[in-house]
Specification:
The structure is a single chain. The chain has one domain. It is built from two helices and no strands. The chain has helices at about 5-40, 55-155. It is rod-shaped and about 150 Å long.
């Protein structure tokens, strides 16, 4: 049984969307795992173990700058995690929309098939009714002709 072209197009688009979402979800999951491991590797601005002597002013500036960068990096990672979560929610919502659309297409396809079957059935009924009507018409014409001939015989006879 051949499927209508519109159904096939919708199916192809749905398959493409689902594959894109699967790839993006995999990428996002890997990115979150990477960010989680990176956040545990940050050091604080404490002096290395065993060093007791005071730091020079320049060294303290470097450590302060390092701390600021780590803070900004942590903030960016938190924002990235929120964005990833939002994207995953959106992906699930779109997946639901795609599933809903596929269900609608399936429903419309079965409705179309049912209507085509009903149409064929009605055309068969119409054909049968026309055939019966034609037979009745011939019968009526024959009856009229018979009555007319009988009336003519009575007048002549």
């Amino acid at each position: 049984m051949a499927l209508p072209p519109s159904f096939l197009i919708v199916m192809l688009i749905s398959m493409q969307l689902l594959s894109v979402f699967a790839l993006s979800k995999s990428f996002l999951r890997n990115r979150v795992a990477f960010m989680a491991t990176q956040s545990h590797n940050h050091n604080t601005s404490q002096a290395p173990e065993g060093v007791v002597e005071p730091y020079s002013k320049k060294m303290l500036e470097v450590w302060k700058t390092k701390d600021e960068f780590e803070f900004h990096c942590d903030q960016a990672q938190e924002k990235d995690a929120e964005i990833i979560e939002d994207l995953e929610k959106e992906s699930r919502a779109l997946g639901g929309d795609v599933a809903g659309n596929m269900a609608k297409v399936s429903s419309i396809d079965s409705t179309e098939k049912r209507l085509r079957q009903d149409e064929a059935l009605q055309e068969g009924r119409i054909h049968t009714a026309k055939r019966i009507c034609d037979k009745e018409k011939k019968h009526m014409e024959h009856t009229k002709e018979t009555v007319t001939n009988a009336q003519k015989r009575q007048k002549n006879g």
